[in-house]
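Re: the multi-chain job from yesterday

Posting the exact lines I submitted so nobody has to dig through the queue logs.
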Amino acid sequence: MSQARGEWSSKLGFIFAAAGSAIGLGNIWRFPYLVGENGGAAFVLLYILFVIVIGLPYMFGELALGRFVQRNPVGAIQAIRPGSAWKWVGYLGVFTGVGILSFYGVIAGWTVAYIYKMAVGSFGGFGELISDPLAVSLLFAFFILLTSAIVYGGVSGGIERWSKILMPVLFLLLFGLIVYSVLLDGASAGLKFYLNPDFSKITGRVVLAALGQAFFSLSLGMGLMITYGSYMSKKEDLTSSGLYVGLFDTMVAFMAGLIIFPALFAMGENPAAGPGLVFVIFPKLFAQMPGGQIVGVLFFILLAIAALTSTISLLEVPVAFMVDEHKAPRKKIVWAVAGVTFIFGLPSALSQGASEYFTNFGLIPGRLTDPDFLSQMSFLWGDFSLAFGALMLSIFIGWVWGADKAADEIESGATGFGKLRGLWIFMIRYFIPLVIFIILLNLFGLFN
Ligand code: TRP
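And the result, structure tokens for all chains:
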């Protein structure tokens, strides 16, 4: 069974692939703009706190379930509670993979366009690009094809091999950019904003934004870590592997901020510019920096690489489900899921000005999200579905499967987990579900 499904070839294989999934547009595009909007260093500290006290213990739960049953999210749940309605939590994870990929792939496509734009010295024109129907559709298709070609190769042949190459390249690029950025005139104001906390900036909304970002960034809540955990060996210490993933993910987000804020402040730009930060403000900065064209090309290559190792993981969940549960041939299934994702994502691609109908779609009330189809999908799958999935999965792991059995699985191969066992059981059964429940209430605007 495990032979046919594939397994990571080494401990490093899992760490690279899972860190590749976690590190993405969430770290380099979303994290900095949230920091900018939510007051800087205090948000950074809160975010790190939530990664440690909620994200990591929850991640151990998903990994343990996946390794215990050696299955995708649906199969994992059915192996524990055959024939129960809990399987719908697994299906939700599979749909969420396609749902997130359908809009994430669109934004990832823009990053590819920006590599080209920087290379030819075109620093403006964000609005024109994202409202050109042919350009956005082709870019989206290109990114989905690229993702499929890698997932096509299977677990260790494709995902692991590519992540091993791509992740170190990303780290090197980031280091270079940090050095460049902090040496700019006026960079110190940015470092102060980013590193010197002003605790009066912390409000209920800021707390919840930090918590939500911790889940999205660590790729939690849709069973991705169940799927990647299922390719792990029983001998492996999943706590130390999970800690590495959390550390790398947090480091990359932190490094992105170290590039972005010194540069922003050096240019006298507004840190609270919102989601357009990367695509609008950055090219402006590159245009004015000496050597900015080269920095711009490097930056968008880096962003595209980070997005690619995340889209790989998003595609892997539905593919693993079809391979395990429907005995479908992996190679055919990759193209089928990619095709469905492309059709499902086209309205998102066309919703930034290309199509009037999808630009003002407005199904979900305006107080929750913007009316364009892409923002609606981002809210539905990236916020609501992940939070709801994580709530249900923590209850499933802590109460249905049983926190004791989960803790036994974590202990297999682990050193030093014994002392924290009681604490972990408390977290997965009470603390984590309660905190996620509060995030969900916030998504519905109860605290506004
Ligand atoms: N974590 C990725 C990012 O930060 C996004 C992502 C990839 C994701 N796979 C996921 C989020 C699975 C939740 C679940 O960009």
